[in-house]
Write a structure and sequence with these properties.
Blueprint: H1 6-18, E1 20-22, H2 23-30, H3 34-46, E2 51-53, E3 56-58, H4 68-73, H5 76-87, E4 95-98, H6 102-110, E5 118-121, H7 124-130, E6 137-140, E7 145-146, E8 151-152, H8 155-162, E9 166-171, E10 175-176, E11 181-184, H9 187-198, E12 200-206, E13 218-222, E14 228-231, H10 237-244, E15 249-252
Parallel strand pairs: 4-5, 4-9, 5-6, 9-12, 12-14, 14-15
Antiparallel strand pairs: 1-3, 2-3, 7-8, 10-11, 11-13
């Protein structure tokens, strides 16, 4: 996990909402010097969470995904609220498949007080986390590890996921188009997510509000195909309408839940 301060993580979350933040406004907001804020912004730019612009920073260009360690600290409170809500749906002794992603990882952390879960994942971060509970059975897909995210993708993973029928499939996405199309950054990521979806009795999509309208270029499924959607704010009206017309259930984890 990146060593960002609490203020830097908060600034990164503010930038998602505002699109641009000035050095002067941030210095006034936090009652610190402009030089201190510039150091914070430099750290965010180095982490890929911001892009320098005259007088401040703006959101980075949507050329790819943000580094995994950076995503772990971004909107952490919102992800924890989503994770608690999703974890409350999982009974003890269930079989659970997890996709890659920091929000599914947060759900895994929230499940550590459960007993007897059978965990299946291609995310080494989740696998190591789940091993902290001695009652869990942890199953990991084999194959080449993708260094950037600590995960496994490819044909071995696809055979692994196709061998089981999971009680619950928990996954996130890189973005959601205005028509409800789910988006990711690679075909293999989409294939892995689809296999978890196809081989799970109940599917839980976990995503924070920043994913709605976020650009990614590989299409893979529709938000209305999921059993339950957990997010921290109400999605755009068009997506809410599509969910309401489908069999999916939308669960909003409100601000009162956010740490």
């Amino acid at each position: 996990m990146m060593d960002l301060s609490a203020r830097q993580a908060e600034i990164a979350a503010l930038l998602i909402e505002a699109g641009f933040l000035s050095v002067d406004d941030l210095a006034e907001r936090y009652a610190v010097t402009a030089q201190t804020i510039r150091r914070d912004l430099n750290a965010l730019c180095e982490a890929g969470l911001a892009r320098r612009r005259h007088g401040g920073v703006e959101k980075p260009l949507p050329s790819g995904n943000i580094a995994y360690g950076s995503r772990q600290v971004l909107l952490r409170g919102e992800k924890q609220a989503i994770a608690r809500a999703a974890a409350s749906q999982i009974p003890n002794n269930a079989s659970v498949a997890f996709s890659i992603g920091t929000t599914p990882e947060s759900v895994a952390a929230a499940l550590l007080q459960h007993n007897g879960l059978k965990v299946f994942t291609n995310n080494l971060n989740i696998a190591l986390l789940a091993c902290a509970n001695p009652t869990f059975q942890v199953n990991v897909a084999g194959g080449r590890v993708r260094n950037s995210d600590g995960d496994v993708l490819g044909s071995d993973l696809e055979s692994f996921l196709s061998s089981y029928l999971f009680d619950y499939g928990i996954y996130g996405v890189a973005g959601v188009e205005s028509d409800g199309t789910l988006l990711d950054f690679s075909e293999r990521e989409v294939r892995a997510r689809k296999l978890i979806h196809e081989n799970s009795r109940t599917t839980l999509l976990v995503l924070d509000h920043s994913k709605f309208g976020r650009a990614a270029h590989v299409r893979g499924g529709q938000i209305t195909q999921v059993t339950k959607i957990f997010t921290d704010r109400e999605p755009p009206a068009e997506i809410v309408s599509r969910i309401a017309d489908s069999g999916a259930e939308l669960v909003i984890c409100g601000e009162e839940e956010v740490e």
